[in-house]
Amino acid sequence: MLDVRDLHVHYGAPRRRRPALRGVSLSVAPGETVGIIGETGSGKSTLARAALGLVRASAGSVLVDGEDVTSYGTRRWRALRRRGVIQYVFQDPLRSLDPDLSVGTSLAEPLLIGGAGREEAAARVREFLPRVRLEEDLLDRLPGELSGGQRQRVAVARALVTGPRLVILDEPVSALDSANRVQVLEILKDLRADGVALVFISHDLGSVAGVADRVAVLYRGELVEAGATREVITAPRHPYTRLLVGSAPTLRGAPADRAAREALRALLHT
C-alpha cells in the first residue's frame, strides 16, 4: 500500500537547504501496521507529509497503492484523496475538527464529498459508531463538548468511515490518558482484519509496540533501524534505539540504562 524508496526531503532556500529526510526507504503492506518512532525533529512528520503529498520530495519516490505519487500536483492528489485511498489522523483532534460542525456533520462530510447521498451518509455514520466506541447521542454535539478521548475517536472515525486502504496516524494517543489510550489502540488493532494498512507515528515506543507488526526508527532524518517489533525491542542494534527501549517503562520497567546513555552520547559526538 505504501512504498517509500530512497526518499530525500530538504527545507529552506537553495543556499540554506537543510535535510529533513536522508535516503529513507520503507514499505507497508495491506493489513500491516508499521510504527515510525523518533524524537521531535527526527523526520517522522515530514515522512507522513511526503506520503500525503504535502511536501515535495527532493529525491526518491513515494508509491501509494501502486501509484507513483511523487510528482503529483494538487489536482491529482485531490482526486486520489476523494477516492478514499489514503487518510490522515492528526495529533490534535480539537484543531483538525471544525469547531462549528456537529460530530454527525463532520463524519458525514467525507462521504458526501465522495458522492454519497445524505441519507446514505447518515446511515453509514450510525453503523460505524460502534466500531470506534462512540454513542449515537454524540452526533449532535460539537467537538468542544466532547472529552479528549471522544474527540480522538471521532477523528479516527472520520478517517475510517470512507473505507480507506491506507491510514497515517500522527501521535494519535500522545495527549490521552491511559484509559482512552487503550481504547484507541484497541480500535487500531481491529483494523488489521479489514486489510487496512496503518502507519503509526509516535515518540512513544511503548504505545507503538502494542499494535505495530514492524517498527522503523528515525534519527536525524535517517532510518537507523527497522524490523519486526519484537526483534527491535528485544535486540536493538543502534545506540539510539537502545536508548528508546531502555527509556520505556512499559517495556523494561526502568529508565534508560547507563550503557545506552553512553552509547547515545558517543553517537552525538560523531
Automatic annotation (TrEMBL):
Pfam families: ABC_tran (PF00005), oligo_HPY (PF08352)
Keywords assigned by UniProt, alphabetized: ATP-binding, Nucleotide-binding, Transport
Matches recorded under SMART domains: AAA
Domain of life where this protein originates: Bacteria
UniProt KW Nucleotide-binding keyword: yes
InterPro entries reported for this sequence: AAA+_ATPase, ABC_transp_ATP-bind, ABC_transporter-like_ATP-bd, ABC_transporter-like_CS, Oligopep_ABC_C, P-loop_NTPase
One Gene Ontology biological process: transmembrane transport
Matches recorded under SUPFAM superfamilies: P-loop containing nucleoside triphosphate hydrolases
PANTHER family: D,D-DIPEPTIDE TRANSPORT ATP-BINDING PROTEIN DDPF-RELATED (PTHR43776:SF7), TRANSPORT ATP-BINDING PROTEIN (PTHR43776)
Protein's name in the database: ABC transporter ATP-binding protein
Species of provenance: Streptomyces griseoaurantiacus
